[in-house]
Amino acid sequence: MQKVYLLIILCFSVNIVLAQRYSPVIAQQVKKVANIPEKLLTYEDFGPKFTGSLANSLVNKWLTTYYQNLGYQVVQDSFKVRNQWASNIIIEKLGADTSTWVIVGAHYDSVTDSYGANDNGSGVVATMEIARLIAEIPTQLSVRIINFSAEEQGLLGSEHYVANTLNPNDNISVMLNLDQLGGTRYQDNSKITCERDEGNRVSTNDEMSFKKTDTLAQIFRDYTVLEPVFGPAFSTDYMPFEKNGYVITGIYQESDYSFFSHSLSDRVFNMDTDATSQVIQGALAASLYFARPLDNGSVSSNFFLFPNPAKSNFHFLVDGQDKVLYKLYNSIGQEVASEEVFVGTKIPVPSVSNGLYTFSIYTIEESYINSTKLIIAR
Ligand SMILES: [Zn+2]
User: What average pLDDT does the structure give for the chain?
Assistant: First the structure.
């Protein structure tokens, strides 16, 4: 009997944890991720994109125009590699807090003899979709998307950015890196590696990296069909951030792409683009989750409560919901009543004193839907 109780309590608490994390707003944006193979092919068609090549600057131009068409201001963060110019591409989406940032990075260069569809067209296309779909959602934190160049020459773009461009006064909540999101054609692509900072140069940022990566893994479970596995962060653009003490996390494909990597075979037809699309959905969900959407679930705005003032009973109607959780707050924001109710049924006025209250409704999973003032006058 006690075991049964324990099980019930356990299930209940697990539900609460998941409920707090799951957001209809994020789920709705994730569904909008689209046309991944087409975007990957466009990137591939530029040819090998090594730093200093014409294809590299054409991809820069392509991305710049794409971001500008979405309404972003594009900053070119230029630097020299041997005798040639290279440039990181930076765009920003401001949140309510304009000094705390989520940085999402993906290099856009490839090695000399590679189309780079997976390394790193997959990461580039992810940032394109994140830029498009995050723009619609008000967030608490600000988001900075950076497409680094010269990653393949030894992380030169991200080294340059952290050393010269990043404002040391910026509060960086996390740096999420997207490099080789996979999957590989004809292989098992059901898993995704979530990368965490296991030591490296600085140890003070490890614990928070583990926490952020745990969250990242949970987001993949919540919003995609992929199963997260953990791996160590290494050898891509988060490393310059790590050695300067910033908190990092990243995703990397789990299936074996080594046969095609850094070769002319790194092409879309050797990828499993369904898997890539899933990874990109997870990357978008993580970016949004880390940035904290402000309105965490406005499922419906059509909301009507009557009679108001209410004496002994009231009703309310709301679009798209059968059963909701209501919470009643007093004038100083304290919750004074809450109950799960069916929409449209007669609801007895809770036993609180007469006065003005805020009546808020939530989904059963506790995602906020809407609020109205309710006057109780017996
Ligand atoms: Zn790469």
Answer: 91
137 inside domain: yes
- CATH code at position 197: 3.40.630.10
Residue 334's domain spans which residues? 303-376
Helix H, strand E, coil C: the string for the chain is CHHHHHHHHHHHHHHHHHHHHCCHHHHHHHCCCCCHHHHHHHHHHCCCCCCCCHHHHHHHHHHHHHHHHCCCCCEEEEEEECCEEEEEEEEEECCCEEEEEEEEECCCCCCCCCCCHHHHHHHHHHHHHHHHHHCCCCECEEEEEEECCCCCCCCHHHHHHHHHHCCCCCEEEEEEEECCCCCECCCCCCEEEEEECCCCCCCCCHHHHHHHHHHHHHHHHHHCCCEEEEEECCCCCCHHHHHCCCCEEEEEECCCCCCCCCCCCCCHHHECHHHHHHHHHHHHHHHHHHHCECCCCCCCCCEEEECCCECCEEEEEECCCCEEEEEEECCCCCEEEEEEEECCCCEECCCCCCEEEEEEEECCCCCEEEEEEEEECC
pLDDT per residue as tens digits for the range 320-353: 888 999 999 887 767 899 999 999 899 999 999 9
- Say if residue 228 is in the same domain as residue 335: no
CA of 49 relative to ligand 1 center, distance in Å: 12
- Residue 179 Cα to ligand 1 midpoint, Å, equals 5
Q: Are residues 278 and 369 in the same domain?
A: no
Q: How far is the CA of 31 from the centre of ligand 1 (A)?
A: 26
